[in-house]
């Protein structure tokens, strides 16, 4: 089986190395000799540690009849979509790690692929086989929820903030120095990377055809030392969670920093590691942990798809032969999300302020669960107030925050996080 690698960067090099280093083992497991024969690069002058043909002419490669599997590792959305579409028109197998491509075009690609193999295990959670788990291992289950730490950069930053008391900007710089974060970290710390991955998982679990702009996405940039103090004092840790949850009214899809009780398994996942918790109606809760990024881990997932293709294993790309079972499911509007909330307010320290805040909350269907005022963050004639709520509706919480912004005693932008109990 002859493989073309479109994009020979960190992951592409590792794909080639593993295919060559583990060739005998891979051949024994797949029943075929799998060989990388050509790679496409943007810059031929850049040195790469591979010993097969390299070219910058992608059209000459995708038109070749002697290639059995095309591995797309280019990144981006529109250009890879055009290229992969051309490959699928020629009924050639495709494997990709491109979560952004799938976040926008997974259903179009599934329709084009038909019975042509299309693998994307590497698009979510790196070396964790979460795609196969949802599509095959848990295929008998009605999935109740998915909660995942699926961005290692954010998990590293939040772990350092919780454990060491470091501030966001200092930890971000260290993450960049260590290669965990890009020079422009917006895609990671803003929650967009995790959102792309969540959309892929939601299609497998619920058949939901949504795009990033359709779902709730918040990043970790506004978390500060006051939030860390509260989390530690009340027995929580803070994680950027990607959440898919089936409710009576629809499917919630959301990515945001979350207060998680420290005794929950997913709260114990630290550093750059990833983890995904899935609850099925038959199996209950199962949890998957491992390296979510890195060349070797991602390449491992890419090659697992190539091996499946060599074996002739064929599963529906998005997990469904028909849409009957999921045709009634709809994406729940962001404002209809129901959960617990944490609210931080910096206010003028004077008589009557707390009463005004609690009245505003009660008048707008917000029930307070706990309250904390601490001198740790006092600043002159200002003080910081912390609230948690009972189960509340997203729209009601946002409305209260908007009302609070207009109050003259509010001295900083109100901050809110959601809580997963």
Automatic annotation (TrEMBL):
Record: residues binding NADPH: 99
Cited Gene3D superfamilies: 3.30.70.260, Dihydrodipicolinate Reductase, domain 2, NAD(P)-binding Rossmann-like Domain
Which pathway, metabolic or otherwise, does it act in?
Amino-acid biosynthesis; L-threonine biosynthesis; L-threonine from L-aspartate: step 3/5; Amino-acid biosynthesis; L-methionine biosynthesis via de novo pathway; L-homoserine from L-aspartate: step 3/3
Binding of L-homoserine occurs at 182
A molecular function annotated in GO for this UniProt entry is:
NADP binding
Which keywords, in A-to-Z order, does the entry hold? Amino-acid biosynthesis, Methionine biosynthesis, NADP, Oxidoreductase, Threonine biosynthesis
Q: Which transformation does this protein catalyse, written as a reaction?
A: L-homoserine + NADP(+) = L-aspartate 4-semialdehyde + NADPH + H(+)
InterPro entries xref list: ACT-like_dom_sf, ACT_dom, Asp/hSer_DH_NAD-bd, HDH, HDH_cat, HDH_CS, NAD(P)-bd_dom_sf
Q: CDD domains this protein is in?
A: ACT_HSDH-Hom
The active site lies at 197
Ranges for domain ACT come to 342-421
Name the family the entry cites: Belongs to the homoserine dehydrogenase family.
Q: Quote the protein name from its UniProt record.
A: Homoserine dehydrogenase
Organism this protein belongs to: Campylobacter mucosalis CCUG 21559
Q: Lineage from the top down?
A: Bacteria, Pseudomonadati, Campylobacterota, Epsilonproteobacteria, Campylobacterales
**Gene encoding the protein:** hom
């Amino acid at each position: 089986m002859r493989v073309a690698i479109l994009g020979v960067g960190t992951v592409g090099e590792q794909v080639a190395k593993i295919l060559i280093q583990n060739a005998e083992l891979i051949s024994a497991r797949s029943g075929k000799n799998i060989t990388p024969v050509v790679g496409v690069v943007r810059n031929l002058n850049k040195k790469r540690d591979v010993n097969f043909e390299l070219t910058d002419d992608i059209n000459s490669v995708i038109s070749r009849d002697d290639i059995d599997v095309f591995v797309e590792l280019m990144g981006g959305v529109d250009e890879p979509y055009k290229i992969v579409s051309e490959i699928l028109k020629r009924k050639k197998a495709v494997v990709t790690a491109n979560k952004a491509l799938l976040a926008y075009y997974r259903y179009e690609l599934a329709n084009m692929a038909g019975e042509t193999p299309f693998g994307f295990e590497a698009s979510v959670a790196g070396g964790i086989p979460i795609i196969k788990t949802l599509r095959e291992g848990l295929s008998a289950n009605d999935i109740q929820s998915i909660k995942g730490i699926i961005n290692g950069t954010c998990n590293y930053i939040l772990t350092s903030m919780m454990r060491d008391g470091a501030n966001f900007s200092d930890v971000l710089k260290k993450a960049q120095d260590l290669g965990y974060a890009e020079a422009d970290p917006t895609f990671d710390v803003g929650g967009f990377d995790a959102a792309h991955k969540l959309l892929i998982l939601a299609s497998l679990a619920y058949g939901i055809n949504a795009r990033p702009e359709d779902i709730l996405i918040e990043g970790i940039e506004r978390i500060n030392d006051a939030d860390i103090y509260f989390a530690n004092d009340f027995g929580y840790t803070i994680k950027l969670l990607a959440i898919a949850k089936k409710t009576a009214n629809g499917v919630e899809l959301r990515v945001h920093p979350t207060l998680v009780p420290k005794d929950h398994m997913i709260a114990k996942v630290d550093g750059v590691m990833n983890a995904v918790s899935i609850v099925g109606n038959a199996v209950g809760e199962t949890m998957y942990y491992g390296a979510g990024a890195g060349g070797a881990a991602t390449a491992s997932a890419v090659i697992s798809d190539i091996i499946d293709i060599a074996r002739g294993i064929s599963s529906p790309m998005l997990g469904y032969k028909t849409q009957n079972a999921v045709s009634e499911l709809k994406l729940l509007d962001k404002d209809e999300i129901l959960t617990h909330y944490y609210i931080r307010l910096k206010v003028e320290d004077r008589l009557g302020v707390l009463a005004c805040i609690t009245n505003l909350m009660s008048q707008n269907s917000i029930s307070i669960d706990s309250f904390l005022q601490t001198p740790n963050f006092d600043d002159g004639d200002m003080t910081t107030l912390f609230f948690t709520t009972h189960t509340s509706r997203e729209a009601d919480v946002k409305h209260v925050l908007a009302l609070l912004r207009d109050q003259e005693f509010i001295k900083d932008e109100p901050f809110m996080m959601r809580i997963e109990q």
